[in-house]
Amino acid sequence: MQTIIVVLGIVALYVVLEAVRELHTFRKVYYTVSARELNGMKRSRKVVFLSDLHNASYGKENQRLYRAIREEKPDIILIGGDMLVGKRSSSYEGTLSFLIRLAKLCPVYYANGNHEQKMKENARFYEGRYDRYRSALETNGICMLENRREAFLWDGAKICLTGLEIPLWGYKKQGGKPVVKRDLDRLIKKEEDGFEIVLAHNPKYMKVYEKWGGNLFLSGHYHGGIVGFPGNRGILSPDFRLFPPYTAGKHKLSEKATAIISRGLGVHTLPFRLWNPAELVIITLQGEKGNGNSRKTAGI
């Protein structure tokens, strides 16, 4: 019996220490996505994807995270939402300063998560804080994609960046109706050509996004499922579903569509991670002649 108690004590201590460690570190995760629509590019392009920072700071002024991004020399930075916390008592000044610094490295595109959207749609309650936040971002060159699309060329390849902002009722923990394709059609029309990257914060509706259309879907929101399991699975979603799909990692949805879900960089309501490290996602985009299945990680 004493041996069992000692073993349980060691296991409990390990869990506590590992959970504390994961709250203060992040890792880099690398993916490669290949597509015929990208064959017009003369070279591969590097995308850094950030999601669910929730005002976390890795070092003073988020210097560790900033350096990790800068050393990748990205061509573009994409933000998938929930960079702040939707509470009146929460300050976003540190996050804002960090994002403004990023905008000096390369173009930055930002799609909202439910925290930003909640602040926007309840402007009076939040005393206009979201409007001031968005204005400061746009003043410093960050492009906000609120149910809108930006298109540009990388050499001979047309790239479309779309930010989907689903209705807030799609995030309800109980009693909310599901988001369907018709809801997305009302928000924004599908682009018919080019390689389309869709920033869609909530991966719960990944099959709906795929039906709506796009080539690469980038999501977050689930924080990796709180506790990680093999096969990019987590134990719990924010709407309290057990073992939900699409909690992390890269998923091939169809011949032309891929999803990448970030475990996020921060926490909020439940400040806990286990076997589920925070992550900075780096994606290499290339023509289809390359290998689209590579993945590696590096701890920070």
From TrEMBL:
GO terms for MF: metal ion binding; UDP-2,3-diacylglucosamine hydrolase activity
Keyword Metal-binding tagged: yes
GO biological process, one term: lipid A biosynthetic process
Keywords: Hydrolase, Metal-binding
GO cellular component: membrane
Record bears the keyword Hydrolase: yes
Family annotation (Pfam families): Metallophos
Name this polypeptide is given: Metallophosphoesterase
Organism: Suipraeoptans intestinalis
